[in-house]
Amino acid sequence: MKSIKAKNKIKIVYLLNSLEIGGTQKVVLDLCINVDLEKFDITIVVLSRNYDILSQYQLPLWIKIIYTDYLFENNYSLRSHLKLALFKKITQKRAKQVLKIISDIKPDILHLHTTPRELLIGILAQNQIHCELVYTDHLVRLKQNEYKWYIQFLLIRIFRRLYKYYNLIAVSKTVEFTIKQFDWFNNNKTFKLIENTIDLKTFTPKNKKQKNYISVVYVARLESIKGHFDLLEAWKKIDSPVNKKLFIVGDGVLRERIEHFIAESKLENSVVLLGKRNDIYEILNEADIAVFPSHNEGLPLSLLEKMAMELPIVASDTNELSSIIINNFNGLLFKCGNSDDLAKKLSIFLADEPLRKQLGKNARETVIKDFSINTAEQNEKFYLSVLDKNKNDVN
What we know:
Elements: E1 10-16, H1 23-34, E2 40-46, E3 64-67, H2 78-86, H3 88-94, H4 96-105, E4 109-113, H5 119-128, E5 132-137, H6 149-163, E6 167-170, H7 173-181, E7 191-193, E8 214-219, H8 228-237, E9 244-249, H9 255-264, E10 271-275, H10 280-286, E11 289-292, H11 301-308, E12 313-316, H12 319-322, E13 331-334, H13 339-351, H14 353-370, H15 375-394
Parallel strand pairs: 1-2, 1-4, 2-3, 4-5, 5-6, 6-7, 8-9, 8-11, 9-10, 11-12, 12-13
Helix pairs in contact: 1-15, 2-6, 4-5, 8-13, 11-14
């Protein structure tokens, strides 16, 4: 392979909150594995020292990873959003180490995969060096009438204030729609839909082991928007003679509360908390049904992984998920937050193996058709278009 001198490469810095196991992290690391390293010089800057997901990846040695000790604001209140969006001195103090690292690297493009509250870091970095800012939004941040009107009003304007400095990538049509709906896109910047995809070679089902129960799996961080308590309430309500087990994969702030709920509801024999796991493929391959009760998403990789493994999906009917899951074709939809409806849909799959298999096959076909394109190549083209646009604007 012909080598290009580092000074001629386009320097990209990816900024992430962490390298914990999660969909955002998988997106970035998949980009790093597939990017053209003859054209691009890649550095990952992490705002914490969590790196659980790295054990699943073999990154090229010349991709640098730098960990920092950014002082996160753990309070996600409106007051916290206002403080971090409006007062640059606060973020400048918290991100002093991060800004020094970025300034030393002098990237051509600083690409953030963070929550919106960290976008001020990029704006401050751009004040120190000349670079283009890119932000990939992985989540539907606001829904119409989700909050009280005055909170909604302020959050819309906070995000608009932050997003306007960035060239934007939306990971799903629903994220793209939200950005346009609330007018967060700056017309002088570049905005593109690049949907999440997965490597079908990695997620191809094999024969399952024999077992005397039907297994249901949910892979997600243990946090409120992921709908774990909806799932557990539904699990309690299922009236079926079928021997079944629910496997919950992931960790997070709700771990103790979920453990308490399981014990209090006497579900220890049928619900298994697996915590963080590196063997997701093996877990999915042995599952019979996948569930996705989340209240808010973008385009979750864990959903695509389950579909690629020919698992029939029971998903909440949020716009994000119902844009992928077609009821009675590649899964079943239930009314978001309604544990009775979720229990009903799970019971349908538990009782009907032929239906499970057919919808599971359809799920994989959906991924093959719509979510198997090389996103690294699309991101590369996006970077070049951003740099070309900036060059033309300067001229």
